[in-house]
Structure formats: structure tokens, C-alpha cells
Task: inverse folding
């Protein structure tokens, strides 16, 4: 018999999992779904199958992945959700209870032979494959229509056992750029940089060493460079073996950013340095116009300290309440200094920045993110922000008190539409009704409110990231 879920923050409100998989072939829609909006939105997030054996060791990031698909065509929306049936999910399903614990290797030696991936962080559509991603394991393939689990995918030759949940597609070459961390042993400083071509074949995978072991959640890619932010959310097997946290905020370390020319050998990475900070997610990076490729600018969601994780010096203290704000980094490759600068761009507390990905790696005119404009239970976001970073001009769509928004996924109005013209797809939790909606906003004017709202009778738990797959027949 499956046990009840504990009353802890990672299971409270819309952080708690739902216990079913379902198909809703034709959702009720308020307003009009634009006819040109044709394709599938996929969203991924943690949805533990069973209550953890040790709630104190559980973290939001450790729940089994569940993918929610919204298939949109002819003004209609069909919905389907499925767990990602990883080996861990299958082992726990057979046992009827949770078997794995917190971060780090499982305590039970018998479980160390079972892959512990949860595939719960993001999804990417590349070279005809839908891949559920989680940074401590390889990509996991799903059927894009049925969401049937197809198994781990290695692009034909991937040798490293990990793959970031935030690969970057180069719109110019069609390549998928990726990195991995925690290689060469548990919680170690080994990393790798690699590329997958537009046809889905691995074309590069080079190992390198980070200045210290850390959780590296996202990275940056311009058209000519990649940048690896190694920030003081440190990883330590030694600390974990002594009963401390595997990952902890340690401001005694400096922020270190590795900069690599994409056409250069891995050994030429140059490490820049700055004050301690943390960045879960980046918006974009590009070579500064007129700099002959010698200056790189990057817009990131920067926190003064890592939220959600314990402090290295006092693991029993609560995690830092340190919201992320849009911040611009600058790297001068021709300068005599290895310091980079960080300049605040906006004062809203936000996360989950997204871009019109057709301009990824080039200067972007607009960006989008989720933000908090008022205190909400569990730190959920209440607004979708459209910002023009060059001017700071912004527009907000804010949901009523008690409701919460997901990351906004941008869909262009058409292949030739100007940057930022299209739609934002947002899943909104209706707190009072305890269910969710898919909301379609005009990306040029989100403040005008939904163009259309497709209504679910159940809720989509707070998750992480989504992706859009255009309808192949509409391309
Ligand atoms: Fe993420």
C-alpha cells in the first residue's frame, strides 16, 4: 500500500504530486486559440510516484519526472500526461514504495546497480526526438505523441553518463550544444563540453576540469563561444560522507566562469572570476557588436546566494531567501583582467527566463520570465514579464492572488515573424479551484491578458521547463 505524502514544503500546495496519468482529448477553451498556433507544448517537472522513506532527505529536484503535453491544432487542445518510466521509476513501481533517498549514491548497495535518473527537469525537441532531460543522467527519449517511454538515448556515441537539462540550440547551424558536470566520480569537478549536429549525431565531447566541484545547472552559448558558470553551490563527497549536504552554498569560493571559443581545443578555456553569486538560469549571451568578438555580454537571473540549498557553514540553517534578478555579465577577452562584471538590469524577483530562440547567441531585443510581484505561498511566481533589456521597458501579466504561473514558452507567429512576435504559453495554477489552465498570451502585449485559456479539470504541479514542437505539417 502506498503511503501518504508528508506535510513538508516540497509536497505542500501545488508542489505536491498528482497520482494519475490521463488523456483529455478536447479541453474546454475560453477565448480563441490562434489558428496559426499549431504544435505541441511539453512541460516537465518532479512528480514523485511514492512518498519518500526519509522526508528530511528529500528535495524538490529529486521527484520522478512527469511530462505534460498540450497538442494544439485547429483551435483545439488535447492534453496527455505520463510519468517518464525510468529504471528507477520501474523499480519503485514494482516495489510499491520509494527505494531511493537524497542526493548522492543510494545507501542500499543493492540499489547502486539501478540507474537513479528521474528525467524531471526539461524537455527538448531535436532531430526528430523528444528527450526528457535531468542533469545527472543521460537524455531519456519519449514518443512525441503518446509520451510512451522509449529509454535512454546516447546520440549514437555519448560516452559521458550525464547531460545538462539546458542544452543550447544554435539557430545558425542547427547544432545542439551541451555540457556535463560531476564526471569522473560522485560529486567531483569533472566536466565535459560537447555538440550534437542537426541530424542528431554526436560530433564532439571533450572532458575538462572545473576549478572546484559545484552544481552547474545552465550554461551560455554565443555564436562563437560557450561559457561555463562554476558558482559556489559546491559539491562535496567528503562533506556528504560526514553526514553533511552533498550540495551546499559556500561563499568562501569565488564565482568562476570558463570561456571557450567553440572552434578551439578544450584546453584553451579561460577562467574569469567574480564575487560569489548563483545563477540557475540564463536568458542569452552574445558577442558585443563592434567588439570584433572580443567582448561577450550575457543576461542571467542572478541571486546573491543559492536559494533552495543549505549553507556549507551551517547546514541546519534555512536556505538563503535570495531572489534572482535579471543581471548583465560582461567579459572582456582582450582586456588585461580576468575579472567579469555584473550589472543589475531589473529589480523584479524572477526566474525561468526564455527567449525567442531564433536569436539565441545574438543580441536579443526582448526576453520573457516569470516573476513575483507579491509574497506568495511557497515562493510561487504570479506574473509573466516581457522585457526589452536595452531600455528596461517591461510589461506584466499578473494572475489573481492565490494563482501561480509557470515558465513562459515563446512560440513565433511564423518562421518569418520579427523577433518577439508570437505567443507565450503559460500553465497557470488556479489555487482556489486547485486545477490548472493553459493560457495563451500575445507575446508582444502580455499585459492585455489571455487570448485563450484551455481548462484542465486537474492541476499541473509546479514544474521546471517546457519546449515547443511545431506541427511538422505546418512548417
Ligand atoms: Fe533549469
Result:
Amino acid at each position: 500500500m502506498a503511503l501518504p505524502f508528508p506535510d513538508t514544503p516540497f509536497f505542500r500546495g501545488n508542489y505536491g504530486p498528482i497520482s494519475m496519468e490521463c488523456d483529455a482529448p478536447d479541453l474546454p477553451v475560453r477565448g480563441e486559440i490562434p489558428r496559426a498556433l499549431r504544435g505541441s507544448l511539453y512541460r516537465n517537472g518532479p512528480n514523485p510516484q511514492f512518498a519518500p522513506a526519509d522526508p528530511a532527505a528529500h528535495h524538490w529536484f529529486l521527484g520522478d519526472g512527469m511530462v505534460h503535453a498540450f497538442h494544439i491544432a485547429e483551435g483545439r487542445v488535447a492534453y496527455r500526461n505520463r510519468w517518464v518510466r525510468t529504471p528507477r521509476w520501474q523499480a519503485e513501481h514494482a516495489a510499491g514504495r520509494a527505494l531511493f533517498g537524497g542526493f548522492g549514491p543510494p545507501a542500499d548497495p543493492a540499489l547502486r546497480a539501478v540507474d537513479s535518473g528521474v528525467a524531471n527537469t526539461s524537455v527538448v525537441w531535436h532531430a526528430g526526438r523528444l528527450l526528457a532531460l535531468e542533469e545527472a543522467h543521460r537524455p531519456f527519449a519519449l514518443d512525441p505523441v503518446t509520451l510512451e517511454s522509449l529509454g535512454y538515448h546516447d546520440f549514437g556515441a555519448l560516452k559521458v553518463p550525464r547531460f545538462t537539462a539546458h542544452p543550447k540550440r544554435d539557430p545558425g547551424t542547427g547544432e545542439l550544444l551541451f555540457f556535463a558536470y560531476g564526471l569522473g566520480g560522485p560529486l567531483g569537478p569533472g566536466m565535459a563540453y560537447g555538440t550534437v549536429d542537426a541530424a542528431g549525431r554526436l560530433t564532439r565531447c571533450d572532458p575538462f576540469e572545473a576549478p572546484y566541484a559545484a552544481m552547474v545547472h545552465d550554461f551560455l552559448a554565443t555564436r562563437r563561444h560557450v561559457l561555463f558558470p562554476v558558482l559556489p553551490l559546491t559539491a562535496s563527497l567528503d562533506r556528504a560522507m560526514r553526514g553533511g549536504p552533498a550540495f551546499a552554498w559556500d561563499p568562501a569560493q569565488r564565482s568562476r566562469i570558463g570561456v571557450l571559443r567553440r572552434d578551439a581545443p578544450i584546453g584553451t578555456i579561460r577562467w574569469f572570476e567574480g564575487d560569489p553569486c548563483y545563477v540557475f538560469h540564463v536568458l542569452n549571451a552574445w558577442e558585443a557588436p563592434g567588439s570584433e568578438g572580443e567582448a561577450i555580454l550575457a543576461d542571467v537571473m542572478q541571486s546573491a546566494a543559492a536559494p533552495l540549498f543549505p549553507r556549507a557553514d551551517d547546514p541546519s540553517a534555512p536556505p538563503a531567501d535570495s531572489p534572482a534578478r535579471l543581471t548583465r555579465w560582461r567579459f572582456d577577452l582582450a582586456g588585461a583582467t580576468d575579472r567579469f562584471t555584473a550589472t543589475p538590469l531589473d529589480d523584479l524577483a524572477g526566474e525561468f527566463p526564455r527567449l525567442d530562440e531564433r536569436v539565441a547567441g545574438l543580441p536579443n531585443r526582448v526576453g520573457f520570465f516569470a516573476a513575483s510581484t507579491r509574497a506568495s505561498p511557497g515562493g510561487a511566481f504570479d506574473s509573466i514579464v516581457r522585457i526589452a533589456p536595452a531600455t528596461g521597458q517591461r510589461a506584466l501579466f499578473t494572475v489573481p492572488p492565490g494563482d501561480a504561473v509557470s515558465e513562459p514558452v515563446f512560440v513565433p507567429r511564423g518562421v518569418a515573424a520579427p523577433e518577439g512576435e508570437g505567443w507565450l504559453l503559460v500553465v497557470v495554477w488556479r489555487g482556489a479551484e486547485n486545477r490548472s489552465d493553459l493560457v495563451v498570451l500575445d507575446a508582444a502585449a502580455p499585459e492585455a491578458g489571455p487570448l485563450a485559456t484551455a481548462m484542465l479539470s486537474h492541476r499541473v504541479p509546479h514544474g521546471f521547463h517546457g519546449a515547443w514542437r511545431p506541427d511538422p505539417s505546418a512548417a
Notes: The mean pLDDT is 95.
